[in-house]
Design goal:
The protein is mostly beta strands and 268 residues long. It has helices spanning 2-17, 46-54, and strands spanning 25-37, 41-44, 69-77, 85-96, 101-113, 120-132, 154-164, 168-181, 187-203, 208-223, 229-242, 252-267. The strands form two sheets. It has an eight-stranded antiparallel barrel with strand order 1-4-5-8-9-10-11-12. Strands 3-6-7 form a three-stranded antiparallel sheet. A hairpin with a 5-residue loop joins β10 and β11. The longest helix has 16 residues, at 2-17.
Length: 268
């Protein structure tokens, strides 16, 4: 999936570069600001759930041996809190002034945030289906969990709570955007949408990394007190889904975050 995202970004800007460089408006800029992530939603922790199945004595020795039993399980939790953080980034863009589309542009940007995972207690819900194949029960299979005889077929639902340790989380994003604007002389409102490659890197008790595709939306206004130099204020929204980020819990979920940034740019 990551290779497809990178390929789309490269193709996107290769098409732009087919135009004569002097025939449109280019710009470069940098920015910083404030990042406010929502809780990580639709959270599941399959790796932790699989280990808890192996530790259950009522499922017998077959839980860890596919030749003896079939075991499927899901381990879901309440939302996972993440921290606010600074955001820093840069961008380069291109508007099609001389192609009779002064309101249309493309942009490539990179930025980074640090939405650390907070230490917290989450509520858990685990569904387990256990079907022994080549192991015999130690008695009559007439009871239900948690008083059932070991090695009996079981459909189990467990609820409880789990302590999640505080861990560092860094997110790097590279995104390609399509923009529309009102090409005013001094004030230029704009908006855009794009696709991004999101690199998540966790360190500490929750350690792991992965790259996933995601959505990048932005809106803002540029001010040009000088002919070539300007400043801008921008709001951004990102959404991506991580899957089994780490080997301890196997954290999976949906990442949503809003950013507010200010920056300066130079156009040529």
């Amino acid at each position: 999936m990551f290779s497809r995202v990178v390929g789309a970004v490269v193709l996107f800007f290769a098409l732009v570069l087919l135009y004569e460089p002097g025939a449109a408006e280019w710009y470069v800029g940098g920015y910083g600001g404030f990042s406010s992530p929502s809780d990580l939603t639709s959270v599941s922790m399959p790796d932790f759930g699989r280990r808890s199945v192996l530790d259950d004595p009522l499922l017998g020795n077959g839980a860890g041996n596919p030749a003896l039993a079939s075991v499927t399980q899901t381990f879901k939790t309440s939302d996972l809190k993440t921290s606010t953080s600074p955001i820093f980034g840069g961008k380069v863009g291109y508007f099609f002034d001389q192609q009779q589309f002064p309101w249309l542009g493309v942009e490539l940007e990179v930025f980074t945030t640090k939405p650390d995972i907070e230490g917290q207690v989450v509520q858990t819900n685990q569904d387990i289906q256990f079907n022994p194949v080549n192991i015999a029960p130690t008695g009559s299979c007439t009871d239900f969990y948690p008083t059932a005889t070991p090695n009996c077929p079981q459909l189990i639902t467990k609820t409880g709570s789990l302590q999640i340790p505080a861990s560092s989380l860094r997110v790097f994003t590279a995104a390609a955007n399509v923009l529309v604007r009102y090409p005013g002389r001094w004030i230029e409102p704009y908006a855009g949408v794009g696709i991004g490659a999101f690199y998540f890197r966790g360190t500490g008790p929750i350690a792991g990394d992965q790259v996933v595709p995601g959505f990048n939306g932005l809106w803002g206004v540029k001010l040009f007190p000088f002919e070539d130099w300007g400043v801008f204020v921008e709001g951004k929204y990102n959404r991506a889904t991580i899957t089994s980020l780490d080997s301890t819990f196997g954290i999976s979920g949906t990442y949503d975050v809003f950013h507010v940034v200010v920056g300066a740019l130079y156009r040529f």
